[in-house]
Design a protein that fits this description.
The complex is a heterodimer of chains A (380) and B (395). Chain A has 380 residues and is α+β, with helices and mostly antiparallel strands. Helices cover 53% and strands 16% of the residues of chain A. The two termini of chain A are 31 Å apart. The chains are: A alpha+beta (380), B alpha+beta (395).
Chain lengths: 380, 395
C-alpha cells in the first residue's frame, strides 16, 4: 500500500497550478467565458504542458499515464474552475479509442488528441433518457457498408468546442435494451449534423446535437456493433471519477475560502470565525472534504478492477461527493452571508460547479440506487 | 379547537376566489414572482387590490386594513398562492407601513400610508451596510442635524429592487457617541433626492435584484424621521419581527409542492417510469409535505395569537428558519427532479430564447442558487437561532 504521488505527478500538479495562477485566474477566466475562442489558447497550453497526452498510450504520442494522472489534472482544474472539455476529449474520447478503437482510428485520433488538434464530445444523453445509459433512442441503421444516424442528443458537454462527436446509437433492440447499442465517431461538420449551443449553470457550454440522416462509413464504428454498453459504462465511470477529483478541487477551495473569509469578516466586534457555531460548520466542511479526497482515490484505484467492483466504488464516490458538494457549497455560501450569493465572489462559482457535477452522469440518488442494486445482486 | 372552516369562511373563500379570477391581470397569470418583471407588472395586482381596499389585510382597519380574522387572512394568502398572483411587495405593506402607523405622527400617517396602500409609491429598505450585516446595530451611515434637515452620508447594501424605488426607509446613526443601538434613527428618504445613487449587484444566478445605495450629503427634512431621534432601533426591531413572521411563505411553498408534483409526473426516472412513481422520490416528497404541514400549523398558531392582540414576538424566528429551510429544500428537490435538463442556463440569452429542455426546466437552476439568500436575508438563520436562544429560551 502506498499513497505517494510520483515525482512526475507532483510536477504535473505544480505546472497546472502555476499556469492557472498566471493565465487562468478568476478575472481572466471570467473574460474567457465571454469569448467563443479563448479556450483554444488554453487548449494549446494543455498540449504543451502534456496534460492532453498524460493518460494516452506512448505509441500514439501519449505519456503512458493513467487515472491517477487524470485525477491530479482534474483536482487542479477544479481549483481553477477550468471549463475546457478535458474529460470529454481525453477521458471519454481517448478512452473509447484506447479500449476499442481500430489501429487506424487510434492512429488518426489519439496522436491528434495528444497534440491538441482533436476535440471530442460525447453525444450520449438524450431528452428522455435522464441518466440511464441503456436508454438510447438515436438510431444507426445499416446502409450498405455504412450507417445512417438519426436522433437528438441532450446536454453534450464540449459540444460547442468539439470537432468530432462520439455518438451512442441503437443498431438493434428496443429503447431500453442493454444489447443493440453501438458507438460511432462522427465529424461534427458531417452533413445532417446540427447543434444548438448554450451556456450551462456553471458558466461552461454545452449543446443539443441533432442527427438527421447522417451517413457514416463502416470505419466510423468504434468497437463491435450492438455491444457497446459495457464500454460506455466503463467510460462513464472513468469520467465520473475524473469529475470527482475535480469536485475535490472545488471542495478544497470552498473550505479554504470560507475559512479565510471567516477570519477576516468582523461582526459584533470580532472575527466571525470566533463563533463556535461557525467553527463547527467549518469543521464539518473540512471533514466532508477529506472524506471526498479518500473516496475519489478509492474510485480511481478501482477503475481497473472487475466491472462490479469498479461500478460500486465509482457509485460510492459519486454519492459521497455529491452530498459533500451540496453541503460544503451551501455552507460556504451561508458563511459568506450576502456576499456569498453575489457573482463577484469566487465561492459561489465553485458551488455552481459542484452542483453541475452532481447532476452529470447520475446524481446522488441515481448512484445510491446503483450501489444498492450492485450489493443486492452480489448477495443474491 | 378545530380546523374546519365555518360556512361564512367558505363563503369568504368563494368570494375571494371569484374576485381573483375576475380581476387578476390575464397577462400575468402563471408568470410567478421574478425579479426581472417590470415595475408596472410588480405593481399591477397591488394597485387593483388598493382600489378594492384589500392591499394590506393585516393593517388595523383605521389605517386601511380589511378587518379580516386570522383565518380569513390565511384563506386570502392561500387563494393568492393558488392563483400564483404577484403579491404586493413587502417593503411598503409589510415593513415600513406598520412602522409608520405604529410610531409615526398623524401627519406622517396621512402623508405616507395612502401611497403604500394604493401601490403608487414603491418603497425600499436601507438597513444593511457592507460592514453591518448580522450585526446591524454596528451601522455607520451618518445623519448630522443641520437646522430642519439631516445631512446623510454612507452606504447601504442588499437593497432589494431599489432600482424601482420612489422612497426608502433607512437606519442612520444620529449619535455617534451613544451605545450602538441607542444612537440610531429611522429616516424616510425620497430616492430622487440629490446625492442618492443606486448601483446594482449581480447575483449568483445572473439576475439583478439587490443594490448598493450610496448617500452623499443627502438633505433629509427632519419631519421625515419616524419616532424619536436616537430611538430608531425600536422601529427596526419591530419591523424585523414583522418581516420574519411573513417570511415563512407557507402558502407559496404549498403551491410549489404542487408544481413539483406536476414536474415529477412529466419526468421519466432512470427506470423508465414516471418519476412520481419512484419510491425514493416519493419518500423525499412525503417528508417535505410532512414538515410543511407542521410549519403550517405552527404559523396558524402564531397567527391566532397575533389576532388575540399580541404582535409577532421572538418565536416568529422559528417561522423564518423553518420556512426558509423548506423553501430551499423545495428548490433542491425540484432541481433533482429535472435531472440533466436543469443544467442549461438560458436566462442570460434573453427572455425570448426557448428552453433547451421542457419549459419547466428553465427556472429551477437559477432559483436554486438565488434562493440560498433566504437563509441569509431578514436576519440570517444563525441570528434567528440566537434570538430564540436568548429571547424565548432565556439562555
Amino acid at each position: 500500500m502506498n499513497f505517494d504521488y510520483t515525482d512526475e505527478q507532483n510536477m504535473l500538479r505544480d505546472s497546472i497550478a502555476k499556469w492557472a495562477q498566471g493565465q487562468y485566474d478568476f478575472d481572466k477566466r471570467r473574460e474567457a467565458l465571454k469569448s467563443d475562442d479563448a479556450w483554444k489558447k488554453n487548449w494549446a497550453t494543455f498540449a504543451e504542458l502534456g496534460l492532453l497526452a498524460a493518460p494516452l498510450p506512448e505509441d500514439f504520442g501519449g505519456l503512458g499515464g493513467g487515472p491517477i494522472d487524470v485525477g491530479v489534472v482534474m483536482e487542479e482544474f477544479g481549483k481553477a474552475l477550468v471549463v475546457e472539455p478535458y474529460v470529454a476529449t481525453v477521458v471519454i474520447g481517448a478512452g473509447a479509442l484506447r479500449e476499442a478503437g481500430s489501429a487506424a482510428q487510434k492512429d488518426e485520433h489519439l496522436t491528434a488528441i495528444a497534440g491538441g488538434e482533436r476535440v471530442i464530445a460525447f453525444a450520449q444523453a438524450e431528452p428522455k433518457s435522464r441518466w440511464a445509459l441503456n436508454d438510447v433512442s438515436t438510431t444507426a441503421k445499416k446502409d450498405g457498408a455504412g450507417y445512417v444516424l438519426s436522433g437528438q442528443k441532450a446536454v453534450v458537454f464540449g459540444g460547442p468546442q468539439a470537432d468530432t462527436l462520439l455518438v451512442s446509437a441503437r443498431t438493434g433492440g428496443g429503447q431500453r435494451d442493454a444489447k443493440g447499442i453501438s458507438l460511432f465517431l462522427v465529424p461534427k461538420n458531417a452533413k445532417g449534423v446540427t447543434t444548438r449551443d448554450y451556456p450551462t449553470m456553471d458558466g461552461t457550454r454545452a449543446s443539443e446535437v441533432y442527427f438527421e440522416n447522417v451517413s457514416v462509413g463502416a470505419d466510423a464504428l468504434v468497437g463491435a456493433a450492438d455491444g457497446a454498453l459495457p464500454l460506455i459504462e466503463k467510460l462513464v465511470d472513468e469520467a465520473n471519477t475524473a469529475h470527482c477529483h475535480e469536485a475535490v478541487g472545488c471542495l478544497r477551495m470552498m473550505t479554504d475560502l470560507t475559512r479565510e473569509y471567516a477570519k477576516t469578516r468582523k461582526q459584533f466586534g470580532r472575527a466571525i470565525a470566533e463563533f463556535q457555531v461557525l467553527q463547527h460548520r467549518m469543521v464539518d466542511m473540512f471533514m466532508a472534504t477529506e472524506e471526498s479526497v479518500s473516496i475519489a482515490l478509492l474510485a480511481t484505484l478501482k477503475l481497473d478492477a472487475s466491472d462490479a467492483e469498479r461500478a460500486k466504488a465509482v457509485a460510492a464516490a459519486k454519492v459521497s461527493i455529491g452530498r459533500a458538494g451540496r453541503f460544503v457549497g451551501q455552507a460556504a455560501v451561508q458563511t459568506h452571508g450576502g456576499m456569498g450569493v453575489t457573482e463577484e465572489m469566487r465561492v459561489g462559482h465553485y458551488f455552481k460547479r459542484v452542483t453541475m457535477l452532481d447532476s452529470t452522469y447520475g446524481n446522488v440518488d441515481y448512484h445510491l440506487k446503483r450501489y444498492a442494486a450492485l450489493t443486492a445482486k452480489a448477495a443474491a | 379547537m378545530n380546523l374546519d372552516f365555518s360556512p361564512e369562511e367558505i363563503a369568504f373563500r368563494e368570494e375571494v376566489r371569484a374576485f381573483i379570477d375576475a380581476n387578476y391581470p390575464k397577462h400575468l397569470k402563471g408568470v410567478g414572482l421574478r425579479e426581472d418583471l417590470s415595475k408596472e407588472d410588480f405593481l399591477a395586482w397591488h394597485k387593483i387590490l388598493g382600489k378594492k381596499g384589500w392591499s394590506a389585510p393585516a393593517w388595523p382597519v383605521e389605517y386601511g386594513g380589511t378587518g379580516w380574522t386570522a383565518t380569513q387572512r390565511y384563506i386570502w394568502l392561500e387563494e393568492n398562492a393558488r392563483a400564483e398572483t404577484i403579491p404586493p411587495l413587502p417593503f411598503g405593506v409589510s415593513m415600513v407601513g406598520p412602522v409608520i402607523y405604529t410610531f409615526g405622527t398623524p401627519e406622517q400617517k396621512q402623508r405616507y400610508l395612502p401611497g403604500i396602500l394604493s401601490g403608487e409609491v414603491w418603497w425600499c429598505q436601507g438597513y444593511s451596510e457592507p460592514g453591518a450585516g448580522s450585526d446591524l446595530a454596528s451601522l455607520k451611515t451618518k445623519a448630522v442635524r443641520e437646522g430642519d434637515y439631516y445631512i446623510v452620508n454612507g452606504q447601504k447594501t442588499w437593497t432589494t429592487l431599489g432600482q424601482h424605488a420612489d422612497w426608502g426607509f433607512f437606519l442612520v446613526r444620529t449619535d455617534p457617541n451613544a451605545k450602538q443601538q441607542e444612537g440610531i434613527s429611522f429616516l424616510l428618504i425620497d430616492m430622487k433626492s440629490p446625492g442618492v445613487s443606486v448601483r446594482p449587484i449581480k447575483l449568483l444566478d445572473g439576475g439583478y435584484e439587490v443594490n448598493d445605495v450610496f448617500l452623499e450629503d443627502v438633505k433629509v427634512p427632519v419631519d421625515q424621521r419616524i419616532y424619536e431621534e436616537n430611538k430608531g432601533w425600536t422601529c427596526a426591531k419591530f419591523l424585523l419581527a414583522h418581516e420574519r413572521a411573513g417570511i415563512a411563505g407557507v402558502a407559496r411553498s404549498k403551491r410549489n409542492v404542487e408544481r413539483l408534483k406536476t414536474i415529477a409526473k412529466a419526468e421519466i426516472g432512470d427506470d423508465g417510469k414516471p418519476l412520481i412513481e419512484s419510491d425514493d422520490f416519493q419518500m423525499k416528497l412525503a417528508q417535505l409535505e410532512i414538515d410543511l404541514s407542521a410549519l403550517e400549523m405552527t404559523e396558524l398558531r402564531v397567527l391566532a395569537r397575533e389576532s388575540a392582540g399580541k404582535g409577532p414576538g421572538p418565536e416568529s424566528s422559528l417561522l423564518k428558519i423553518k420556512g426558509t429551510e423548506i423553501q430551499q429544500r423545495l428548490t433542491e428537490l425540484t432541481l433533482e427532479a429535472i435531472g440533466n435538463y436543469a443544467q442549461p442556463y438560458t436566462r442570460e440569452l434573453g427572455g425570448n430564447e426557448f428552453a433547451v429542455g421542457p419549459e419547466y426546466s428553465r427556472a429551477p437552476g437559477p432559483i436554486y442558487f438565488n434562493w440560498r439568500k433566504a437563509s441569509i436575508y431578514g436576519g440570517s438563520n444563525e441570528i434567528q437561532r440566537n434570538i430564540i436562544a436568548k429571547m424565548v429560551l432565556g439562555l
